Amino acid sequence: MNMSKINSMLGAVIFFSLAVPFTVFAQHETGGDHQMNMQTNLDDAQFLDHMSMHHQQAVDMAKMAIEKSQNPKIKSLSQKVIADQTKEIEQMKTWRQKWFSSTPQTTMNMGDSSMGGLQSATGKEFDQWYLDMMSKHHEDGIKMAKSANLKKPEVKKLATNIVQKQAKEIKEMSDLKTKL
């Protein structure tokens, strides 16, 4: 792999590690107990908003891997990521609407500038880059799930499940990288 490609890969990994921290653009009503209650709700609501967006980005990368990778194990892993995270996105959206419909939606500034580099990679280079990016993406998802200040038991359970599944998938991706 030439230095230009290595620098591009490193740039993508650095981008994702900087882009994932919460960037909140919610407007809150001010004053007294109402503000405190909204902030408590926002911890769960914010997690649901942000993890949904984070999962969607993983789904988008996995779809690209299904199209571009020639490795059946990478395709299989990507199909699992799509199925699991799409199901979790739907669950999070349902909970968001049910529990926090009156709470302002929050957004994350994640960008997708590194996806262009992934799109231009081919063959084994694509597989390596994809596994590196998805591993880093999962690591960031784990950090997000562990650092959230969650109150609702269902959301706490989801966060715990995300940590466990993504840690297992990181191990699987690490094993796949050694066989490329």
Produce the secondary structure layout.
Elements: H1 3-19, H2 32-68, H3 72-100, H4 113-120, H5 123-147, H6 153-178
Helix pairs in contact: 1-4, 1-5, 2-3, 2-5, 3-6, 5-6
Description:
It is built from 6 helices and no strands. The chain is an all-alpha fold and 180 residues long. It has a single domain, classed as Up-down Bundle (Ferritin). The chain is elongated, with a radius of gyration of 18 Å. The two termini are 13 Å apart. The relative contact order is 0.18.
Defining traits:
about 180 residues; mainly alpha; Ferritin
CATH class: Mainly Alpha
The counted number of beta strands is 0
* Number of continuous helical runs: 6
Mean pLDDT: 80
Share of residues in helices: over 70%
CATH topology: Ferritin
**Integer count of domains:** 1
Brief overview:
The protein is 79% helix and 0% strand. The chain has 180 residues and is an all-alpha fold. It has a single domain (3-20, 30-178), classed as Ferritin (Up-down Bundle).
